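Sample pair:
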Amino acid sequence: MGIVNKIYRGLAMPEHSANEILGQTKEKLWIAVVDQFAIGWGCQYHLVTDINIAGDNAYLTLPARREGIIPGVANMRLPRFVGDRMARQAIMMERRIECDSDMGRRICDELVAS
C-alpha cells in the first residue's frame, strides 16, 4: 500500500504533513532508477518519487491510450513537470520523453552513463 499512497499523495514536502488530518506520520524518501526505459506505471512512479536517476539513453512513455484508458495519475502530475502541451502529447499520442532532453531533465534529477 505504500506506493499506492505515494502515488495518491505525491512528493514529500517538509511544510506539509503526510497525514493532513492527524499529522502523526513520517515521510520516507522514495528513489526511482531507470536503466533503459520506464513505460506506463514505471513512468508514473517517476512522477511521484522524490529522487529520480536515469541512464543517459533511457526514456519514458505512456502507451495506455492504445488500451483505451487514460494512464493513472499521469494526466494530473505530468503537466507539472513538462507543461500542458507536452503532457497531452505524451498521454494522447505516446510521445517518448528522452531522459537526456530538456523535458526529461525536468523529471529526472540525475543522469548517469549507461
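The longest strand covers residues 51-55.
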